[in-house]
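Entry 14. Structure prediction run on the chain below.
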Amino acid sequence: MASPLHLTPDQQAAVNSTASKSLVLAPAGSGKTEVLIRRIERLLDESRGQSFRVLAVTFTVKAAGELKARVTQSIGEEAWRVDADTIHGFALDWLHRSGRAVGVAPDVVVYADPRDRVDLLRRFLDSVGEPYPDQPVLLDALRRIDSMRTALVSPEDAPNEVVGPLSLRLPELYGAYLTAMDDAGGIDFAGMLTKLLELFELDPSVLRRIRRTYGHVLVDEGQDLTQAQSSLLREIVADSVGLFVVADDRQSINGWAGGDIKWARKLAGPGSAEFELQNNFRCATQILSLARKVANHFTPPRTDAITPPGTPPGSVCAAEAEDSAEEAQVVVSWIDDLLQSGIDSSSLVPGEWNQLAPEDIAVIARTRYALDDVQQELEKRSYGLSLRVDAESLLATPEARLFLALLEVGVNERNQPAWRRIDDELFNLVDEYSGIGEGDRTLSQLCATVSNTPILPIADLIGRSNLDGEGLDAVRSAIATGEYFHGPDLDRLLAWWAEYRASTHAQERSGLGLLRFLLRVQQTRPDEPGIRLLTTHQSKGLEFRAVAVVGLTQGSFPDYRSIDNESDLENERRAFYVSVTRASRTLLLTWPQRRRTRYGERHAEPSQFLKEAGIRA
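Output returned:
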């Protein structure tokens, strides 16, 4: 990374742009975060005493938090003028404030789990007497519905096709899903965008208020914008708000979700100023050389960034194993050597520190499943690891997950996803628990069902509390005793609770506010010490001194579903490019001769990307 005090000429040109709309093409390791921060600093410094705010739209909650922290550190008291969030977080925040006109209440339930979304479709099918098909059929229907919503296609314009074995056609199922979501008082991620766009049309005063609030919008990872996201931001920016978009089509890996750099270009508009960052400050020369070979196979082929003088050579190595278990042993032995002996000094510039902490090392795979053997081998050797997980898995114990779900229904008893999680946990915790049925469930019904269990006191307290002010403090005090549950999960919850209290005025604290805060926490990977295990999509935007990319077989990476489709294969190639460019000093690529599948072990051919990268002839 370039020194924060010394930007390169191309970085400085982007930071100093006076164009109302700017597009910055920024390859991996080119210092785009530094450019974004310096751009924000410049905008605020030149407008001291003014009240407009700056909105920074990031791809992940983690990136938003880090950007806000760095800006706060560098500009101090003016940092209050910076809002950093994901596009979905931004949209949901404004819907919380003003969304009643489009049916979004302040206590709207976020439907993030596919199981809960499928359940909405199942309930509708039950209501019309339609046989309930296998879950994969409904998941595929949801995928198609989401694709249309991302492309801003209404139910009326959906293809008039039958869905799987259903007699219903896609427009009807699409419309029924939206109605079921509204009836449940819920919203999903696609709905956060489409509902806010609907609100702009129904109540233009909301859009005017947003435009008065923000003088500038900065967008990171613009290559992964979808049509809906681009349209929403374009409405906000219009002609009056400054726009600064950073993107790199080489790192566009969300094509499956509708992401494409063309939406960044459409957002910036034909008259925008365009800049390109030239240097890769992250990757050693051998790693960047490999990345260049991969980029040469893009459609169209792309040249890659250049390395500045003094860049160390780094190292790239590859290993074939008999099976995935042996592959895991190879990877963990590589990690052993790095932690014990450090990076070979011949890979570094003279005087560069060669020792590594576990947090400097990442193992990346195309899917979570492909990390299982490495995880087991690391645990067998008692290594600490940080595994990026889904929201529910942030809490390890059923008691803690149950408490969080109880808090959710305490705020809104219509929260069906929370009731589903309560049932899931109680079936494991309480002998002979049979549930309390579907429909309008209440905490008082639940208390009657668990009256002879240790869960009753906390469920009863949540049911009796208004979860504002003193009521919320009473619930916190009850769990802080450790009688209900204890251990690391309790420590985590209390730490999050303390952070919420520290960031919120006393009169504004509420159960709903706490849950909104925890939703943001749950969208962020844990930062516990240890070796990082990540999927390719989770690694986006991160960097490590040492990276192993595993499971590089044809059918795994690239995924078997993409091999015969050039567009899908291109997305997989870009995912591979992103994976290898997470490494700054040393890179290991591995593949097994036999890989595990749901049908047992199968012979595996090495990934075609190994040949494209020059690893295999």
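The two ends are 33 Å apart (CA to CA).
Filed with the rest of this week's runs.
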